[in-house]
Amino acid sequence: MKSWLRRIRGAVLMGLTWALVWAPVGVLIGTIVDPDGSMDEMWVLVGAYPGFLCGLAFSIVLGFAERRRSLDELSLRRTGAWGAAGGLLVGLLPFAVGTASTALPLWQWGVLIVGTFTLLSAGSAVASLWLARMAKKREVRNASAGV
To answer: What is the Cα Rg of the chain in Å?
Structure first.
């Protein structure tokens, strides 16, 4: 039971971390889409919500695919692939839930949303791997200093 709680806590923390990193991307999108500030959008949330969902999806996909291994033990390529898979799942979610009400064709929205989420998620997964490896090195260094 404790291992499940630890996994859930880790997935939520991964989602929150990605949400913090993706929030400035939402602000950047807001400055491009709405340069004069006439829309009443909270652009921080435009980046934070997908970031949280992609981080959560990455953790779930990683938990099922790599049960016995921790994040710092994975290769860069595998981590990027699992991150892209999580981004792909979240990117397809709006198309599974409803229909687009825009002037752009559906395939262009699909490329824009799914492609962006997939690339950002793969990059965030690789960055998470890098941070996990740095933490592992620091842990080993601190443990060897006490010997």
So the answer is: 18
> Using one digit for the tens of pLDDT, what is the confidence trace for 10-52?
899 999 999 999 999 888 888 887 777 777 778 888 889 999 9
- Please, what sign has the CA dihedral across residues 61, 58, 53, 113? negative
Q: CA 140 to CA 147: how far, in whole Å? A: 11
Helices (H), the chain: 2-33, 43-65, 76-97, 106-145
CB 142 within 8 A of CB 92: no
Q: Look up tokens 């340069």; give the residue.
A: 35
Residue 38 DSSP one-character state: -
Give φ, ψ of 100 to 5 degrees: -80, 140
* 3-state secondary structure at position 74: coil
